[in-house]
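Subject: for your reference before the review

Hello V.,

The reviewers asked for a structural picture of the protein, and I figured it would be easier to keep everything in one thread rather than splitting it across files. Below is the amino acid sequence we used in the manuscript, unchanged from the supplementary table.
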Amino acid sequence: MTIRTTLSFTDRHHGFLQRKVSEGVFASASAAVASAIERMMEDEIAREAALDAMTDEIRARLATPSDDYLDLDAALAPIREMIAAGERGEPT
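And here is what came back from the structure prediction:
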């Protein structure tokens, strides 16, 4: 179903829209606006999926026993050695 509506644009937006229609990127101003709205809808779905995935990962990490984590000093030791070697002018 198509619904007819009236939209207002700034001169800048209107000019861009008309230019895209005249270049043949979109068949009409309505098609361009519909495409932009569709993109916004897709972006919202993707953002929600990303947030859900991050939430799941945070919950999983919170449930991980602390004994399963790497020791911070052991994990950073090679990096600290590289930095120290660089400060002494040694080849890395």
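For the response letter, the relevant points are probably these. Residues 12-87 form one domain. Residues 17 and 76 are 53 Å apart (CA to CA).

Happy to draft the paragraph if you're swamped.

O.
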